[in-house]
């Protein structure tokens, strides 16, 4: 009989739904711990109750402090707005609970650093919700790079482009700096910074420009940046909520001395692989591809939501093993390091200088 | 409190997994009936038990007759091999259970006809598992056609290409005519015949060639066919398990007097739409796209397995309403009519003549 | 000093322009004979004169018989409407002139056969204008197939789709059976039949449906066909002038036991090559790719018109060598064999039977 | 009778071939002046003679000063290596000859400025060889932008990626700073800077990183840059000769408040156009598309070399009209302004600061 792991989750909106669904999917897999949906917290009790009912959360509370104090809870899952990341997560870690927190880890690098230190000091397992690491094509890219298939990496370029910013009401929390911290940087940029780090190594310097095109928005609508990696590779990062025609295009390309890789999250199940001239479109659904033992025969694609199943499966396994989610899962250290890059982007935009990414 | 609907399922392999997962996903949606996973039947008790455990089936039996006799079961779901479709499904319908059966409905049109008549006579809800009707892009294609967006349809072409046939062991049941009936025809061709009917209307004639290239295979590896529709449109159908490079490419194109549509299941979330010259790639993930109220913000794609959630949601709703799954779900009549086209393909391949599709 | 080859051309419209331009381009290449643009014939003297002036044709005549009688002419190039293919070409061959004639070779197989026999009897070099054989990607496909790269061919499918038929005035000669013979068959189908023969071998049987959707058209707007090759491969052919969204999509795919190839003339410089799962996009512009020694550094694409330069270069070289344009150029025998397939398509459409392609 | 325009060309390699071929193609078009291939200059008389013979250049000289002094020459065409751009071109302009010079205009902005001033002072027509402005899809993009089809431009991103740098001998002139000035910047970057200016307006600032990955190379192998436009748009520029898998991928995307455009020179005949979500692939071969009155029926693509025909046609028309090649052709002012952006890229790479582009 698989032992249970009580989960308390903060947040019931987009991420709340994605995580809830994934916890339930874990029941269908072999896991060393069985997640039990103990408690869901949200300020709007009615809305939270509806979500809790749908996914089987046993309790609804309106104050996350109840979850921190709840002895049934072994894992605290924070899917709330950015401004609610640091305090509850730190409290939960200090209470000895394992923690997973959505990205960006904190409102800035300072918050993220405090979260990381708190989790380390408490010796709990910690994970930052960079779910794109759990896309089979991304894991395959990492495996190929690790195996030397593309040689020495010289270029990394990623652009995360959406277009909803033109049409969304300006009073969304994502446009409010007090709640969101930054705009495209933390929302979209954090994802591609993490992928840059996961696939090509630490970022040494950044030069960036931020821009708010829609006057009603309190945060950046878009940024562009050049980067240098510690290993000498160079690249570009770019994110926008104002790229008409692009819906959720998180696209990257990596060029190495022996080959190249390209990916776009709009075509989640595909990896483009070049050894010589010309890219080969690999449908990442073969039995020996990452995570595919959980799924279907070749050619039957998985969805974006399924990446959370992989992510939480990985987390639960790490908790059971008493270890860490590294290197394939993002730790709070990864969340913090990403935040330093985000902060360096903001700093460079202000100073007009190439900024070295520094860690405290 | 949502009333329950007891489900008994035959089969625990590929389709068993797809359906089990979808029943569980229904719990997260609003449904008028709540599926209860009462009983799973399979000849190999041990294997069935493992699957039952994973998905929460309450009972495992090795004889489907127990399910037919089980008063707790209101819906009989047949996901077994083709040769096990007719007898158990007919028995279940006669026992007053609603029925869903995987495609192809029977081993031939005769079996399929008997299944349809039995279900009609028993006045139960019946559905044939053509899940591709529940791909959002396919439903959108149907909506666009119904709305006249592409005018009068003149061409329909579909090809369902896989490549596993070169490498698979020859003793699989799918190569055995006694168990599978046909090869590429019933396995892949049935899907595109159903899509042809769903999107362009009844097929009037077929001319076809069948071929078994791998001598060890007892069934057709591939077929090619030309078709005429009752409405005057013409087209081609083609399926193969021997198309190197293609993994699960179920691709179709429809040309009308005012526009065209194109789709490939390897890119499940995309529909190509042409009004004038040039196709527009539509990511079928907008809030007003079919089924998308169940899912994520735009650009976050769904997976192949999720089409079964849509399918079973549709079925359960029909059962609750006391109606039929038509026109968007495939009934046993659709399964039967598809079988007549399949039989006409076989007949034409033998006679070398253009064969009229006839219904008994 | 390169000896001259006097050219007389019939026709000054689409093909007249394509050939004129290519003859001029030959001057920039090394050729064993130097084409001299001696004489252009056309019924409309004024229009012909304008074209002659543009491309440097020395004389304009309104009766092709003057060209047949002109001793300066060594090569007769027939780019006129289909109904003007047989008589002038046969007369020219009998007058000892080498001949190139646009496709389809004759109005039917009978005419085509007479043309072939006449050219053979006259022992002149003869070529049928299947210019797609001179697309670098197609020649590369042939090289790969000849080298065994995709193993034994099992499937060939091609569809040549255009959409101008919906909008063009109905009094164009291409809709007039007296001038054009057939519609989509001879215009588009002939190209893909020739490619089928060039890449996969002789066609043994066809089953087809023809259709005229626009009542004002005197010829077929579209056809669909299944084919069997003498080597056992099977396939589909399809052509239409009524496929909205498609402009000039001559697309084919070949599946073999070890790999596959795919091509679309709208992306003339690309060949898709599959060895295992997934196709690699090869830009056919590398120095060692066919014809590329004539052109630019890699990645700088050539145009559709440039295929005629390759074709006429090949023809002139064959004439100089006293040989044949086979196997890479299409001879009148190829034109005739293609015509027999076209006729079998028409016959099958009428009889509703699978028709064996027979040669007289 | 069309009056002649004597042409003297410096250089007989890549650009020499491209220009020669285009001058000859002009004879087939209606032009107000008829280019006469008077004189070709090159240091290697034998090689130059071979090229001259091929394309019909009447004279070969080894010293361009002879061309400057030749009264038959009305247009001086400089297609030599970068270090040979300034002096001969300035001399030719001062001698009253119209001038076209390949890009990059000079070795640096100082040279380019002197060339511009000399041409202006001499009141001759001057053109810088940014041939991508003469790609039909690029001209169409400009037309759409000018017509307001995509609204206010917010983002421009371009990347020009090749891969030959890994494999080429290190002693090529393109790797020698004395002859080439810069590497990827002047060779590839200049093209995308010009397209940025042509399609989105003047560039105000740049932040950049340069990199030489192959130690034997004397120039930059790659650069990355962020840019700000005077109109407030932001973007990225990137060029590399070390991007495995990419052959000649000059790809750009422009996002505006109402729509987006995307283009890649590897698919020269296509423009991707987005009005709402999803891009439409437009084959830029319709009769009303730019330059298409010179070519074929829709769907019959043109080649890279044909862009020079458009470019020189434009130049000859401007010369005949006594005007300028602006705004659709690039003048020496455009070449100079591009050079200032190149220099700012180099400067920013050195200072690590965001550099304002300044004009002297």
Question: Can you lay out the helices and strands and say which pair or pack?
Answer:
Four copies of one chain form a homotetramer.
Chain A: E1 4-10, H1 14-26, E2 34-41, H2 45-55, E3 59-61, H3 64-69, E4 75-78, H4 86-94, E5 98-101, H5 109-122, E6 126-128, H6 136-146, E7 153-161, H7 177-180, H8 184-200, E8 203-211, E9 222-229, E10 234-240, E11 249-256, E12 260-264, E13 270-274, E14 280-283, H9 306-321, H10 332-351, E15 355-356
Parallel strand pairs in A: 1-2, 1-4, 2-3, 4-5, 5-6, 7-10
Antiparallel strand pairs in A: 7-11, 8-9, 8-15, 9-10, 11-12, 12-13, 13-14
Describe the structure.
The structure is a homotetramer. With about 350 residues, the first copy, chain A, is an alpha/beta fold. In chain A, about 35% of the residues lie in helices and about 25% in strands. A 9-stranded mixed sheet of chain A has the order 14-13-12-11-7-10-9-8-15. Chain A has a 6-stranded parallel sheet with strand order 3-2-1-4-5-6, sandwiched between helices. In chain A, β1 (about 5-10), α1 (about 15-25) and β2 form a beta-alpha-beta unit. The longest helix of chain A is centred in the last third of the chain and has 20 residues, at about 330-350. The model of chain A has no long low-confidence stretch (mean pLDDT about 95). At the A-D interface, β7, β8, β9 and β10 of A face β7, β8, β9 and β10 of D.
Number of helices of chain A: 10
Instruction: Kindly estimate the percentage of residues of chain A that lie in beta strands according to DSSP.
Output: 15-25%
Strand order of the largest sheet of chain A: 14-13-12-11-7-10-9-8-15
Shape annotation of chain A: globular
Question: Please, what is the average pLDDT of chain A?
Answer: 97
CATH architecture of the largest domain in chain A: 2-Layer Sandwich
- Main beta sheet of chain A: strand number and arrangement? 9 strands, mixed
CATH class of the largest domain in chain A: Alpha Beta
Terminal residue distance of chain A: 44 Å
Which class of secondary structure composition applies to the elements of chain A? alpha/beta
Can you tell me the residue ranges of chain A where pLDDT is under 50 for at least 5 consecutive residues? none
**CATH H level, superfamily name of the largest domain in chain A:** Dihydrodipicolinate Reductase, domain 2
Using only C-alpha atoms, the radius of gyration of chain A works out to 20 Å
Largest interface: A-D, 50 and 51 residues
Order of helices and strands of chain A: EHEHEHEHEHEHEHHEEEEEEEHHE
Number of strands of chain A: 15
Oligomer: homotetramer
- Roughly how much helix do the residues of chain A carry, as a percent range? 25-40%
CATH topology of the largest domain in chain A: Dihydrodipicolinate Reductase, domain 2
In total, the number of domains of chain A comes to 2
């Amino acid at each position: 009989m698989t032992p249970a792991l009580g989960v308390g989750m903060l947040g019931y909106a987009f991420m709340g739904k994605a995580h809830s669904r994934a916890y339930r999917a874990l029941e269908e897999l072999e896991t060393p711990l069985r997640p039990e949906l103990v408690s869901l917290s949200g300020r709007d009790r009615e809305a939270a109750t509806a979500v809790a009912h749908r996914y089987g959360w046993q309790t609804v509370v309106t104050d996350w402090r109840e979850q921190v104090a709840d002895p049934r809870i072994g894992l605290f899952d924070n899917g709330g707005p950015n401004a609610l990341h640091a305090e509850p997560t730190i409290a939960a870690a200090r209470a000895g609970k394992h923690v997973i927190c959505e990205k960006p880890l904190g409102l800035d690098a300072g918050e993220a650093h405090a979260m990381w230190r708190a989790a380390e000091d408490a010796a709990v397992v910690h994970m930052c919700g960079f779910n794109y690491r759990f896309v089979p094509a991304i894991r395959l890219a990492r495996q190929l790079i690790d195996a030397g298939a593309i040689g020495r990496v010289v270029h990394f370029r990623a652009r995360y482009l959406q277009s909803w910013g033109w049409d969304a009401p300006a009073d969304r929390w994502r446009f409010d700096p007090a709640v969101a911290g930054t705009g495209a940087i933390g929302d979209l940029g954090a994802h591609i910074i993490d992928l840059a780090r996961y696939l090509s190594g630490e970022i040494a310097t950044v030069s960036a420009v931020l821009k708010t095109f829609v006057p009603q928005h309190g945060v950046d609508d878009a940024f562009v940046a050049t980067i240098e990696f510690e290993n000498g590779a160079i690249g570009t990062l770019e994110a926008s909520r104002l790229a008409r025609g692009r819906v959720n295009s998180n696209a990257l390309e990596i060029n190495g001395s022996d080959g190249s890789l390209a990916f776009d999250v709009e075509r989640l199940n595909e990896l483009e692989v070049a050894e010589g001239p010309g890219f080969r479109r690999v449908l990442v659904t073969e039995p020996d591809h990452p995570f595919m033992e959980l799924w279907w025969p070749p050619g039957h694609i998985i969805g974006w939501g399924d990446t959370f199943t992989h992510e939480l499966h990985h987390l639960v396994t790490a908790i059971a093993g008493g270890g860490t989610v590294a290197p394939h899962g993002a730790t709070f250290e990864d969340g913090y390091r990403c935040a330093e890059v985000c902060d360096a982007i903001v700093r460079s935009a202000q100073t007009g200088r190439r900024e070295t990414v520094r860690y405290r």
